[in-house]
């Protein structure tokens, strides 16, 4: 059998031609794919307010390129974003992507609190007397007359199919009621 340079006789496995710990060079296509993958992040960075952008710890050169891109249109904008993308590729873009995601993600507690208020409102409009009693015992300082009037108005509004102004007012009242107890 003819000896092939990449064939290792000793353990009958193909030698991949790599030395231990040395990675092969990336092809031009791979480099281009990696750069193009940074396009959405570059655009998101450009759209961030200056306060958030400055908090990311990016180089001054990249920050200037992103700020400049905000004032450009069409072809000039594309060229400037390409330039900013190249600068971003040299920096820790994974940390920048994580920070941008954190800026976009509202805090989970706020979302849960909004869902709780919506649930309370829907249950009150459905006539849940147990919830009404629980809210009055949990929040004893609430103006009961005003609260019950808001519930009645929201129920009437829903029955008539009109704009939910009283429903929104009830939601705000519930939020203020809950927040007043948290501050104490």
Primary descriptors:
184 residues; mainly alpha; Diphtheria Toxin Repressor, domain 2; 2 domains; two-stranded antiparallel sheet; 68% helix; elongated
Count of domain modules? 2
Structural class: mainly alpha
Tally of extended strands? Answer: 2
Distance between the termini: 87 Å
Q: How do the helices and strands follow one another from N- to C-terminus? A: EEHHHHHHHHHH
Number of helices: 10
Secondary structure elements and pairings:
Blueprint: E1 7-8, E2 13-14, H1 28-36, H2 39-47, H3 50-54, H4 60-69, H5 74-89, H6 93-104, H7 108-125, H8 129-138, H9 144-160, H10 165-183
Antiparallel strand pairs: 1-2
Helix pairs in contact: 4-5, 7-10, 9-10
In short:
With 184 residues, the protein is mostly helical. The protein is built from ten helices and two strands; from the N terminus they run ββαααααααααα.
Task: Describe what this molecule looks like in 3D.
With 184 residues, the protein is mainly alpha-helical. The protein has 2 domains: 28-104, no CATH class; 108-183, Diphtheria Toxin Repressor, domain 2. It is 68% helix and 2% strand. The protein contains 10 helices and 2 strands. It has a two-stranded antiparallel sheet with strand order 1-2. The model has no long low-confidence stretch (mean pLDDT 82).
């Amino acid at each position: 059998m003819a000896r092939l340079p990449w064939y290792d006789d000793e353990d009958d496995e193909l030698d991949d031609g790599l030395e231990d710990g040395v990675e092969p060079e990336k092809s031009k296509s791979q480099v281009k794919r990696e750069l193009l993958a940074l396009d959405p992040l570059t655009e998101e960075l450009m759209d961030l307010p200056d306060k958030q952008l400055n908090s990311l710890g990016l180089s001054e050169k990249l920050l200037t390129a992103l700020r400049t891109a905000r004032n450009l249109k069409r072809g000039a904008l594309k060229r400037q974003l390409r330039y900013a993308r190249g600068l971003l590729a040299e920096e820790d873009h994974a940390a920048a992507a994580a920070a941008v995601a954190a800026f976009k993600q509202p805090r989970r507690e706020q979302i849960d609190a909004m869902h709780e208020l919506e649930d309370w409102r829907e249950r009150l409009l459905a006539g849940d007397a147990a919830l009404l009693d629980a809210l009055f015992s949990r929040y004893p300082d609430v103006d009961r007359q005003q609260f019950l009037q808001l519930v009645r108005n929201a129920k009437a509004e829903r029955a008539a199919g009109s704009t939910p102004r009283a429903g929104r007012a009830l939601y705000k009242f519930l939020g203020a009621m809950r927040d007043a107890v948290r501050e104490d």
